[in-house]
TrEMBL record:
Keywords: Endoplasmic reticulum, Glycosyltransferase, GPI-anchor biosynthesis, Membrane, Signal, Transferase, Transmembrane, Transmembrane helix. It is found in: Endoplasmic reticulum membrane. It comes from the Eukaryota. This is Mannosyltransferase. GO terms for biological process: GPI anchor biosynthetic process. Its EC number is 2.4.1.-. The keyword NAD does not apply. GO terms for molecular function: alpha-1,2-mannosyltransferase activity. It is a multi-pass membrane protein.
Amino acid sequence: MWRRTYLLLFLIRVYFALCPSYIHPDENFQGPEVFAGRIFSYPSRIPWEFTAEHPIRSVFPLWPIYEVPMSLLKWFYTEGGSGHPPPQLVYYALRTGMFLLSFVLEDWAVYELVPSPAHRRATVVLVASSYVTWTYQTHTFSNSLETLLVAWGLVLIRRIVKNKQYSSFFSYAVLSLIAVIGVFNRITFPAFLLFPGLQLLPCFRCKPAALGIFVGFGLLFASVAIYIDTSFYRPAASFSDILRNPIITPLNNIRYNSDSSNLAIHGLHPHHQHFVANLFQLLGPAYVAMIVSLFNRKIVPSWMRNARALSAVSATMLLSIFPHQEPRFLIPCVPLLLSCVRIHRTRMFLVSWIGFNAVMGFLMGVYHQGGIVPTQLAMRSIVETNTASQGIKSQPDASVFWWKTYSPPQWLLGPDQDLDSGNSSAHIDTFDLMGIPGLEMIQRLDSAVPRCPFSSPVYLVAPLSATFLDTYSAESSLSSPHSPNIQLYRLWSYRKHLNLDDLDFGEDGVLRTLRRILGRRGLGVWSVRRACK
């Protein structure tokens, strides 16, 4: 039974790994977007974290996850004489890589962290049945990598403590490498291993050389990370320049996040957000069962008496100090807490657990901003087809405006020139309008659309649920009093797209808003034209 269930969950995880949902812009702009432009010369927009005077993101942990597979794909295509690989291949190759890391390393770590053989299989299946494992862990998040590093950090700590006298120095060296990668990946990493790491103090007391190995290799790996980061941000810097003025991205990150005015830019939340809302969003019925066990027992329940629970609870408490709190910050807590809880397989829990993860899996893994990646991958073909349909032989530059969506990854457009034939494709300029008011968006389009006769194509990408666009649709009989000369011709749409940022319960009411968001789900591409006589 366990094997069949695990096989089914494996297939479900593969399905969600290959679904092009878009959970958060960081999954693209803090990894693939940075390296795709450098390796393939694809169009890309480097985020501010990498362009600030004091960069706060390290490329040291990103190099093996993104740059190595991209470079291998480039080498394979170059050796085969095929030029650069298509962006969709690169996209799904990265997704497959994240899936394999999660499937192998996360499940293996969970299996080792559970000491009881009787509970190991049930725990691995429970973690594998979580929608967080299906979605977040298969996306290119730094939080997904942090989850693996935290889990294996706890595995090594457990191995060392269990074999205090006979643990090898190699274990301490690997643990120091995990610690350095974790810190340079996310500054939240130490919060997960701070208190469990105290178990190593007796080991260091018994074997002082182990402490020297841990600290020495840690300094070595940190020096390598600093050298790689400084060389990345200052390509012309010499070795002596790096020694005199190194770029230490974790310190820059701490300084940035210590300023509450900086955090206010990204959104401020109450300090109880993690415990009240975020953990429930990630764990659902499992979190409810954990809370119930706390109130039903006069003593501390068994699930809180191990290093995994200590890591998750203490990290959540420490991260709650900072006012900017997102659910993905607690992704490492999911396998840790699920590996602690012993839940009776009652019908009520099984039904609620399956229903919760099915709904959240399809919401976050399929429909959440799910049209952005397919639309961006198809955008060049849409532009070229529309240009040809209007009888324009050459490919003029195109301006594409995105409204009420997450920021589109520009590297998915691919190169402007077909390297196989040498023919130039349409150059596409991408403008992210985010969620500006509708009339302001129309004004931006009005200023971009050329005067008659039509020469340069302008396109709008927006959710189908945006009823404001109905007034300007060429299919509508209504005329707009604001800009009667602007007309929208729908060229393309992708139905598996939900825009949860467009909820307006105050104006439309709950039922009308849900009917609009769900009934008119999808992302559309319109050709913006002026009504020329």
